[in-house]
User: Fold these one by one.
Assistant:
Number 1:
Amino acid sequence: MPRYSALALLRARFQGARYWKPLWTGRTLKAAYDVVVVGAGGHGLATAFHLARDHGLKVAVLERRLVGYGNVGRNTTILRSNYLLPENHYFYEDSLRRWETLSRDLNYNVMYSPRGVVDLCLSDGDMITASRRGNAMRLAGIDSELMELDALERFAPELAPRRSRRFPIVGALVQRRGGTARHDAVAWGYARGATALGVDIIEDCEVQGLCTEAGVATGVETSKGLVRANRVVFATAGHTGMVGAMLGVPLPIETHLLQAMVTEPIKPLINSVLIYVHPGHGETYVLQSDRGGVVMGGYLDGFPSYTREGQWHRLEEVVQGAADLLPEIGGLRILRQWAGTNDMTMDGSPIMDRVKYDNVFLNAGWCYGGFKTIPASGAACATLVATGLAPDIARGFRLSRFATGHLLDERGGGPFPVRL
């Protein structure tokens, strides 16, 4: 195979020669489709992929900016199904099982790494809460282990759990099959797979309004013109409130920022995902990326915002928590800080349902769980859109639950209830 220097490749690029083939760009927007999906993030792309593969529909994905520009590229890549409520743990477990085969299904390496998720307990009360969650998971056939210090020391020796700390570690709830995947690869893999199935992915195409006639949606107005569709799906995480305003439907969703940051790369140190909910600094979760950087995150900022700007006080709180947990990383330099815009519902659980019109669908409100649920969300939403009936594991996510009081009160921000 010929080898090219970086300068030769750059020169060839500007001279018009191509050594690579675009995977999804260059598609032409057609006048009409069976389904238009608004939003080319993880959930939108996965929904389009399953609509085309499983239901044979003609689909377009319309994206205001670029594929993967939003939350799918602005998260900490954690995958887990360690939820308490049945409506959540069955859905997240379905997603985790799909993660295990996703690289094969897409024929694209999404770098799924089942390194284990460790929810640390700092008191006997935490252990009781963790055991309740773990028992609920095990009764549902989901892997879960409650570890005391000896077992935790063997599983995560980098923690040195017996080390003297302000908030001593007494044990942990561990899900070995949990872990991480590469966020960019997930977006690229779904975009490539959907395009191969005939889906048109149109970037720089802002949806400006919904077209209706006789109480039915007939298409969308975009910056590139009118596009007709039999069904419309909105999967615009972080901007769902704006979709509600456009449709004239108030939604029980606020947009909050979730901060994260990464250090300079170091040699392998952290073998799993460590989640540390402590009285001093709130929640901190820590993992090491495939490139060696230590990735850290925590709670929401606590106020609505669309800015995606990093907040110094959140960086300070998260870093202090990480340094309390792993003092050896205290001297590392922070390379980058970012924020994702999270759809936060009033009960912390998602919405997958029709909205206002029988042929308009909403896939939103994933709160902390957006990245980890992409595979299951895409399959379930595609089934709802194509057949009109949500699969059993997604029926609890109806919008009507906020009117009837059948809430799924589980924010899912860590191993224990999150109180903002």
Number 2:
Amino acid sequence: MYVAVKGGEAAVANSRKLVKRSRRGPLHIPKIGTDQVDHQLGLAVDRVMAEGALYDRKAAAQAILQSQGDMVEAIFLLRAFRTTLKRFGNSKPVNTGKMQVIRRVSGAFKDIPGGQILGPTYDYTHRLIEFEDEPEPPSRGIQPSREAQIDSDSTSPDQELAGLAPRFQQLPWVVDILRNQGLMPPASETLIGEAVEDLTREPLKVPASRSIRLQNLARGDEGFLLGTAYSLQRGFGLDRHPFLGELRVGYVELTYTPPELGFEISIGRVKVTECFMINRNDGSENRSPGFENGYGLVFGQNERKAMSMSLLDRSLQSAEEGVEVKYPAQDQEFVLSHSDNVESSGFVQHLKLPHYVDFQSELVFIRNYTKDSQKKRKVPVESSV
């Protein structure tokens, strides 16, 4: 398409060599491995998996290394890798009510069934850079069991924290308190199954169903979602202060029924963040006053994104409820079409490619337009060399 690029093949090859050299850094500094990235930059790995739409910690860690920490580039790499993988079926809907919780908080109720679990979070840390490395904890001198090794290798770096939490258990959702009191509409009984729409295989069409909207938001850019959700809180959409009904982080079990077996088996577990955001509803002619909620569920520990997602989920239901769409965060076309950082990045960065012919046409146009304008104003045109 861009013929001019062919003339610079040698320059492109040299650029790739420079990337490899820059990525490695000075040879006297130890090389970083994917295990270090996974275990010590776990939140970065979580974000890349969420926005790359692929739960593969090793691949996400390698993408971060290969992109020198450029999250959008790493997400692009992971999505490209995802397209090479074979899909052999759909797992059953996960039951987040039976999550192995490592963190669970509510901003709406102080005392919740099962209790509040602060877990690992930066919410209560001092925002001070610690230049001194913390001393390593003493080794206990105990070799992990084979089961523990398999568990650690196949899931995530915080298995020790997960081991301190209760195993998979039934923790009721906080929003059920309001539902049981008739203050919030009951949850939909429809479960996602084989017939669910798949945004990764079908192009986005607006207006989109809630299933497609949630898929889009789940892999959308965290920064875009955060900024758009923030606009709601500043008055561009929500007219009521939202409340955090519940935020939980933990592991959910995946089950699958292989056709050759005919019965359900467990195929592993994944770490997710789930969020319910609550808004007051003053009611209308057709609806009783009460509360309504937005929902967010993403891979890994991505609390800002899950909260932003749940705020936008609630906001994007405006048109379906007959509410006038006045603000960007209520507009499906605006939010869904601009939240994908891979697409956005590609469209912006393509401007770095040669546009010589296009720009020459713009030059010809503006020069001719200027001459015509000067003639109309009877301004003498200086001869050009």
Number 3:
Amino acid sequence: MADPIGVTSRFLLDPYVDWAKGENIPIHQDFGLDLLALETSKWDRYDAHGCFAHTHGRGDFMANYVIEVKPGKKTAPMKHLYEAFFYVLAGTGSTTVWLPGGEVRTFEWGPKALFAVPLNCRYQIFNGSGQESARLSCTNDAPLTINLYHNLDFVFNNPAEFPERLGENKHFDGEGDHTEYKRGDKVATLNVWETNFVHDLTSFKLYELNERGKGSLNVSFILADGTMHAHSSQIPVGRYKKAHRHAAGTHVHAVDGTGYSLLWYDGDEKFVEIPWRHGIMYTPPFWMFHQHFNTCETPARYLACSLGSRRYPFISYRRVSGEGKGSVSVKEGGRQIEYEDQDPRIHRKFLEELKTTGVSSQMGDIFDEPAILALPQSELTGVIRNPQLVGPAV
């Protein structure tokens, strides 16, 4: 039916989606995406190539796009009022940042580096190779910012300066400040690293955090004094993390190692499976359980970026996570499924996957693995039942 007076065009608007469509680059959407393989095209705004990498679980506040800088090229100088974390998927190069007051800082990066540009500072990305493209994943809160203001000139041409966001000069050199953050009596202390730039996530020092599984390592980042959060975690050889759930918008990047992740809602017939290797990114939808598995001969690391930092939680779900609720069993009102409560199919699948890679399980101290392998198939079917949630769903 025709809408001659344009009534329907005045309601249920999504300025961020309209902006993305108007950039005239590919928009990819799926449960998970291989950012190294996505098609890009010329992106006038950056004077480079790019695409949007939208996931079904990105939620209302967060999104991702990929910037591809061709050999020997550079982007146009850029600035914007949304926060952004850049993870280098491939290539080598440098970034120049113009700070309030006229100071200019330049730092060089390579594969698997992570950096953030302080809010609304002008920046430019250079490809340092004359033969290979550089490809960067940009996780951002542009949906929050653009939908809030719905004025692109305000977002991209705003003269406001935020000198309190710059950090120290050393933060542009890959140095930083380490803080231990005490969350409470029942949960472990978190280790937080404040900086603007991490040279290489594969070698960055992580700290013990066994709440999510024996041998797990973790560090949280505060980047450019931002409201966005990032953390890097490592899964030991022959082991996997405990299942957990949280708010939407957490963009998980596999950094190294191989394996898979499983995702499900209580009562689902089947698990959703996402492969694990560098370049893969996915975003668990709101309140969907997910679990990470390492099936290779080396530890596996990942990077997770979301809204709500350790300093500025922003939303109640992130504040509760920061207080440690995310590492408490669902039977006690938390968000985590303990190993003894998980579906038996989960460990059975893990053991079968390890057979194909030749890696030995290191979880025999938790599971009766011969008994699990001996279970008949009839006992490994049906819907996924999780322990009953106790307390408020926060």
